[in-house]
Write a structure and sequence with these properties.
single chain, 310 residues, alpha+beta, 5-stranded mixed sheet, 4-stranded antiparallel sheet, 25% strand
Length: 310
């Protein structure tokens, strides 16, 4: 609010009145004055801490698992995700951001679009070269029966249920494991040999090396999925015009610490189409605010997602 990213009159399509003076007072009293900073410096500091924390969380599930976030797009959802997305992407070297339709209620939309899924697990703790296929098959059959019963209770018949079997594997003596899909539901010697090959490949991709040490199966897990008949289809979805409405005008926005705030156009989300628009720009809708700093371009895809290119 202090930096100018958020509407200083009201949020949620005008239904939630705000008082920006209170935000200014809170930062001045609790952060800026005790630290000997200006209010703008303090506001940028708060924002930077938040951005770095989000980037750290993303690194934990990418870089620390052998995945390069620079090869990925960042999905910015939530009421404030698109407010922070460009700064977080820059920290990680990501160059493409997607602010989905209904970003502010994305989790709720996901519930309407998702299949029902349940996971079942049994401990094995046995070296792969000592595992008997028929013993592992017995575990898988028991897990499958549990899964079918659970989804039947939710109204999914056998014809609408599919299953994926995975083995949590590690080198003998390690404390962490990788979850490797099995190639077939019926386990035999060929499936176990393929499991060894797939684990070695996954380990190489994740940690940069692999070796010939004994492999241990820690767990067998089975995921059963019930296919819904009335799921929300994003391709067929139509968003109410009111949800894409927003303020139109210009306001001062401070994009960088130490730099003067600049006049920044504010446009409703409904006005963004396939033509690229260069930042600085603030895009408003009922459920979220999308910040497009200088040096970033924004456009909409055919579904209505806003694409930001760094």
């Amino acid at each position: 609010m202090v930096l100018g990213f958020l509407n200083a009159t009201a949020l949620a399509g005008g239904s939630l009145a705000v008082q920006p003076a209170l935000a200014h007072t809170a930062i001045e009293r609790h952060i800026a004055a005790p630290l000997g900073l200006s209010v703008m410096e303090a506001a940028h500091g708060i924002r930077n801490v938040a951005n770095v924390n989000m980037a750290r969380a993303i690194r934990a599930v990418t870089v620390e698992r052998g995945r390069d976030p620079r090869d990925m797009s960042l999905i910015a959802f939530g009421g404030s995700g698109p407010v922070h997305a460009v700064d977080v992407a820059r920290i990680l070297g990501i160059r493409r951001i997607v602010a989905p339709v209904m970003a502010g209620v994305f989790c709720s939309a996901g519930m309407l679009a998702a299949d029902a899924e349940r996971d079942f697990l049994r401990a094995v703790l046995r070296r792969l070269d000592q595992c008997e296929p028929h013993a592992l098959q017995g575990i898988v059959d028991a897990l499958r029966q549990e899964g079918m019963v659970a989804l039947a209770a939710e109204g999914y018949g056998p014809e609408r249920v599919s299953a994926v079997i995975k083995a949590d594997c590690r080198y003998l003596g390690q404390s962490s494991d990788l979850s490797i899909p099995l190639t077939r539901e019926r386990i035999d010697a060929a499936v176990l040999q393929q499991l060894r090959t797939d684990f070695q490949r996954a380990y190489q991709e994740t940690f940069g090396y692999a070796n010939d040490e004994p492999i241990e199966i820690v767990n067998l897990r089975l995921s059963v999925r019930g296919r819904g008949s009335d799921r929300l289809s994003f391709s067929d979805m139509r968003v109410d015009a009111g949800a894409l409405a927003g303020q139109r005008g210009v306001r001062k926005v401070s994009f960088e610490r130490g730099a003067a705030p600049i006049d920044t156009p504010v446009v409703p989300r409904a006005q963004i189409d396939a033509e690229r628009r260069a930042g600085p720009l603030i895009i408003e809708s009922y459920d979220t605010t999308i910040v497009v700093p200088p040096g970033v371009q924004a456009c909409a895809d055919t579904t209505g997602n806003i694409i930001l290119e760094l």
